[in-house]
């Protein structure tokens, strides 16, 4: 993990010696003086302070620093000093220092009679009125070293207003943390209070980030509170915890991933191990789906008990199959997998797709470890086990025991769970969603989201990637793959299990604040990923995003026949971070020319309910052709004058005409009406207009997701 | 508004004299000493303080109170003292008081050279470490007097962590405010800080509530900050603003509303003014829908140019129609409405349904005022104008120009907007939703949501009411109607325009904090209303809530074939405030007996994906029959072993068997699978199981809404 170049050399040696001596003593927590040596070495500002080992010492030190001072117990055995009654603030006279010294030593002895007490820290007290913040770093099981920032005091504990980033941070990322907390305005100064020194805070975040990045054995750093003033930022308390650094699992190079994934997704030859002629068997379903799906490559059934399966020559072993094979699909019981995988390895097949269950998910971890070891020995990449298989539609490949799927299109979908995979399939079929791939990941013994993301990022048939996941085996690899992909195409993630961990998190130190989900949320956003709040949202985004062209600017305009829809569409714009354009006077006049005098221009543009098709057509055309407008939201109201299919036809036509002129703007529509609006929506969707019946939220959510991606991809300035 | 009995008599006289003298001087803001007389009269604690008109005065007063003190400018012309540099805190010596006096008087003069300066308030300084809170009251345009509570300091301003209630408050409501802010835990004491005196805060909220309730001309009260300690609560700053009290529009009695609404919804005879034989005319559509809808009462066309319309005798005027008429439906242009309404009034028809547009919504306020005046003169209740009409399905009444709707059922739907009304109709037809009524409210010149709520609350055919609204003409009448209805049946509200006002709100005083939407949100919740976040949610709740029996307790159990669905269903439970039951050991063992050894009991109960129908059946039956379980969430995974319709049939059968035994528990289901799950969901929905395909969120959201209602109705303890 010490992969970042850094400028600390003498300073690093200081930290190294502090850490080494603490570990030599078998301690995982640094004392306050040790903490100060570490923070001093990394240029993290702390108040003037010194250790007093006697009461007289303390008085002398306080006299030198000036009153008031803070007194704190120093003991390697007492981590939570406040709880131990080991802290006194605002000690403002010689007599008070003298009394305070005895008090906190007494308290500490009562709190833990076994504690070794090294003395009392006397510390310069920081200016009243400074803003308390928390700066910290911890080691997340998924993402490794992460940096935390929040407002200090009791509110961070109660409101959990904290934000996280992957370490190491650059300056832009560090600065973005100050804006990412709910109470960000406090740092800019409110009600006449001065703004804090942002450069000082940003610098402190970077220094903490560098520290944990340089020393992987530093598991946690807590600077809490940090006093932020207009002139600087000073850490008043330092807590540093050590642990054995985690070992990251082996990494494949980007080239190696692309090579094996390309053979997985575009194979020339597939072997089906456990192929069967018998209806109802998985090995039969897989064969049928490969054949009926229209796969043009070679399909080699492997089954020692058959000569021919579904008209294809069968082989006793994969070793007998002639020529190169790109993928071996396993449709045999778990207990036979290891032996067959050995043969796959010996044959030099690069990909094993393990459909069978009966591995880690049923408690058979040892069996799974065994197959992983075999695969690693031969360099075979493993998809699964415990999956429904996968689809690669542009290659007419249905290597699954479900039903074929043949609507080719722009979205690649993956799911960790088989049930969710079936929901993906059903939804896609029901909505006629154009798909480039559907992949089951199951136990993720090897191939996981970052491998697939790396491939789909480069796949010209894929315009959007949507992934259901419950965990990430390697959060850093995923973030790296997402960062490489997002500038090219949107990545949507449904992270399941998002609430439980957060709900259990408690306490005030950085580790406890880092409830799983908040860390996922911040770091996925940092990686530019669109996080779907639920399954249906993921599916709808997957359907809609490839259909919409990227927006070229922020100006969104609503054109509606129903005033009521206009209000709800405006609500949805606020919910999804879209900016309703302030219509300039000339454009307002241009819209007004088309609508009745009692209609409202402005934004929403309310063309009123009784209007003929020509009014919809003229206003939509103007919305597309005026270069100051960047996206359209249409609100349709079913009337006898303009029936649903008439609206759909005219809208699709006007959009197509604009595209023929090189005008590509995202257009979404909400259709309010009787059931005929359903067919109208399907007609529009097929023609590049994202349209939904009976909802004002869904079309705006889809547009909002497209904008979120455009910002993450750098096509638009940050929102 | 002075309708509440109260115990203040002498005290009221004091307040009256303060208010009268301020108004006599033409002032709308009370001075600090006036504010103190008012708060003293109502028993609201404030710090020791007195007015100094000279510097020497100030020094003498401070000496008497003890240091430190606060100095504040007193001027009727300076409301925002801090911004004027007119406040000094922590003034801790005679010399500092002397210097401070000149400073703030100087600052105030600079801030506003015209300001009349009456002196400087010298105030006892409150204990450091007290929790600052804000207590206030304001006058909301929709709801009238409302009380506000939040944490003080800059965070209330930045994080808007404030809660609102209608005045007058009772003790329970006042106490609930302390728990309704995000930072509620702060008041209970965190990190060893003591809890504040809740009774003192609750008392202060009640006193402020009584004050504004007793004196409607008090438009706004701000106690900010209030210092809350373990021993009391003291208002450090008082700001009171006066205004002319608003006049409430005339109220109908509950009996009068029920009588006219019953004749509207269950008429024996309907006249159609502007009935027509000509296709495409609104008066023709209305006639056809009445006839084809199967209305069994009399239908009287009124049209001076026809003798017969669609086989019914036509009349030249409604005055010529024989016998009583309950409803006159208007299908004539706006300009003819007034004259026809006069005749409706003279005929003694109690209800006029005004379909035509061309009134206030097109700027013709005067025309609308004219018809309202005519209606009031004759005692005619008016629905509309500018509506699609209304449906009363159990009475086979389709008094609308849309298409008939005949699926009788338990939900009454209303919409302010015609477009949303069409979405309601389309959605209901597409999903086969059982409906008791659909009503357009349009311009709400007279009949509004509280009239309809009052009626539907009593209507035995209505089990749930869902309302789309953009505003409330009389928020208090709506709350009263909701409170009377919610104990009997759920009320769902989609409040449109919910974000704009909130986004515009700014500043720190109570009036500015009361952004429209937060007030609606808190007060609708206080009234027990379920607020739908969007149109589709309202429609889905409307469809699902009448189908689900009320839960009898908090224990929710998830039974799932797909582990992946189980995780997402659990997420959704947290989102929707549902409590996953902790399964006791005997019940755990009972479930385990039915599922494979690698399946997981606990909650979710993961029966695993490959199980036959018997496993679903046994576990669902156990879930229904064990009395400790109160609601079931099912996660189905499409397999060859248990196809979708097999699951649907067995689930519906087991639920029906339980109901036959008197076991009524809400059961919802998420079906993950290929498109056959859609038919399975429809089958289940018709049989009382709320089931959705391709979503884990929607079924749980419906169950969550049912629980929210059950708590509001007092069937379950508060969540």
TrEMBL record, chains A, B:
It comes from the Bacteria. Keywords: ATP-binding, Ligase, Nucleotide-binding. Transmembrane segments: none annotated. InterPro entries: ATP-grasp, ATP_grasp_subdomain_1, CoA-bd, Ligase_CoA_dom, NAD(P)-bd_dom_sf, Succ_CoA_lig_flav_dom, Succinyl-CoA_synth-like. Gene3D superfamilies: ATP-grasp fold, A domain, ATP-grasp fold, B domain, NAD(P)-binding Rossmann-like Domain, Succinyl-CoA synthetase domains. Residues 36-72 form the ATP-grasp domain. SUPFAM superfamilies: Glutathione synthetase ATP-binding domain-like (SSF56059), NAD(P)-binding Rossmann-fold domains (SSF51735), Succinyl-CoA synthetase domains (SSF52210). GO terms for molecular function: ligase activity. This is Acetate--CoA ligase family protein.
